[in-house]
Amino acid sequence: MNKIFLFLTLTFITLTINAQQKNKKAVIKVEGNCSMCKSRIEKASIKLKGVKYALWSPITKELSLIIDESKCDTLKIKKAITGVGHDTYNLEAKKEVYNALPACCKYRDPNSIHMNHKKVKKP
Q1: What pLDDT does residue 123 have?
Q2: What's the pLDDT band for 111 if we cut at 50, 70, 90?
């Protein structure tokens, strides 16, 4: 009886460990406005170990990810994104970090959406 219980326990533990996916797709809602926001959000995500792919859309405000769950999770990614000034679905960036963003990136200001969000080339 003890051998059966031990076998079942080890099987359960093995299955639980293997349940973490190496190429899990995830989508996170992230606030932002422009191509500068896009670059900042994607860089904050992709620099984390375990993030294989990150693409943010300024239209849908969604960050599409492919992650290795054994190395990273969505909470860690959300914390990295709020660390560079962007709010996620359930985490908010610190006020001082948000205030340091360029004017066109201040998504909390309803007037910022009407700004010219194209990068200006310096002469």
Answers
A1: 46
A2: confident
| b (16+ CB within 10 A) / e for 75-113 | ebbbebbbebbbbbeeeebeeeebeebeebbbbeeeebe
* CATH T-level fold of 21-119: Alpha-Beta Plaits (3.30.70)
Whether 8 has a pLDDT exceeding 70, the answer reads: no
Spatial separation of the C-alpha atoms in residues 103 and 111, rounded to whole Å: 10
* Residue 54 pLDDT: 96
Distance (Å, whole) CA 119 – CA 60: 20
Which residue ranges make up each domain of the chain? Answer: 21-119
pTM to 2 decimal places: 0.76
